Fold AtpZ/AtpI family protein.
Amino acid sequence: MAEEETPKGFDERLKRLEAQRGLSEPEPAQQASKGGLNQGMRAGTDLVGGVLFGIGVGYGLDRWLDTKPWCLIIFFFLGTAAGFLNVYRSLSGYGYGVGYRKDGKTKSNDTPHA
């Protein structure tokens, strides 16, 4: 009987201390509004980051290889495609893992198909 009372007492003390220090979780309405903003900011960052990285690599290769617009154009489109791919993966629930599997939904005996 004493073993059952200990975790309950601990949980109550933990919740009380979290409330005193302001560490309790925000209300569900606040979490939902921040979730959409977080997803939007991540999507924008992924897209802009991919494009800027592609432009930077293309510009650098153009200066190094003296092929003025071609590497910039090619890597601009590659960076844009990579940005859209990252946005798709993050918004559809796929992580950055190999195989395009949803996060937390994989089985240990699953193998990717080529």
